[in-house]
């Protein structure tokens, strides 16, 4: 089928109006490369790399085309066959994919470094001297919204077991995330405390590692598979009933570990065991948790205007767009405003806003038109990448005094009545 129903859902097609920048166009290019009609050269690579991987095309497709799987295979093939990486690109890829992300202790060192950068006054010096401008404009913009990184992750701060408050409903394993645990440790802590308030014993397996999403989306599928296997072992040993993620980008690959490992029959059962247990924090709170009690009036008693930006992967892959909205509406004195096109990508998309800054900024600008129209005080998200991108948009639009971007776990925990 070449119906084109996916075209209006695709952010890069909406921005450009160009067929090659659409899901249908990209699939045609993949087919032409497979059929030997075209050489998968630089322009083919560019089109594949322009795709955000947001997977908004999948729910729009009446033929149930698994676009996410196609783009990952295409990127994997590009990586396997390409010899065009410059030396420094290969160096950065090796550093990030092999030496850094898979090793949580090294990620903690990164957290310590970022913590030192912010707290020692170095950041102020760097800004005053304009040293940060030696990087690209986009990276120097990103530097302005660098969160307060932590040198101590959630296990160092809470231990590996947090009991349920009140009667226990089930045991959940917390997926802490590699970057999440360094840049948003406080959000991880609040996620665990929310789960405890809702009646879950929480276990945080220490041997878990990065989810492998970045690797899988960047053509490093062997590394992604190795990371997946280690995570499956860690959570199976912990014997949990559910596995909870608070990052849509991580959750989406976790629920697809069975597909990631589908060519390895010896992993069939274990990967299916894992995939079926993965839940986003909002979904498990709504569907399995004891209902949370929220303070009736918060934020000084005045009604608080709140809007929500979907995480593409939570919405399009984990099918979890409703629970977060439901929870936000339950919070006392919240006036919930649905944003126009809240389900459309914000331009963050993993490292897309670093590798494709022009398109990412264009998408962000259009997103901010809709954000600003809500006049919300809180812009809530369910994924660290979206959170940073929204903070960047707010900063660029000079809205910092009127609007705050927050993760849903932080927003809910700060307003829940604690047992
Ligand atoms: S994943 Fe997103 S950007 Fe890529 S083709 Fe599908 S809708 Fe377009
Ligand atoms: S991917 Fe699906 S929606 Fe898009 S053109 Fe093909 S069949 Fe139609």
UniProtKB/TrEMBL annotation:
It is an enzyme of class 1 (oxidoreductase). InterPro entries: 4Fe4S_Fe-S-bd, 4Fe4S_Fe_S_CS, Cys_rich_dom, Glc_ox_4Fe-4S, Helical_ferredxn. It comes from the Bacteria. Component of a complex that catalyzes the oxidation of glycolate to glyoxylate. Residues 40-73 form the 4Fe-4S ferredoxin-type domain. Binds 2 [4Fe-4S] clusters. Its cofactor is [4Fe-4S] cluster. It catalyses: (R)-lactate + A = pyruvate + AH2; glycolate + A = glyoxylate + AH2. The keyword Iron applies. Its EC number is 1.1.99.14. The keyword Repeat applies. This is Glycolate oxidase iron-sulfur subunit. It holds the Pfam family Fer4_8. Keywords: 4Fe-4S, Electron transport, Iron, Iron-sulfur, Metal-binding, Repeat, Transport.
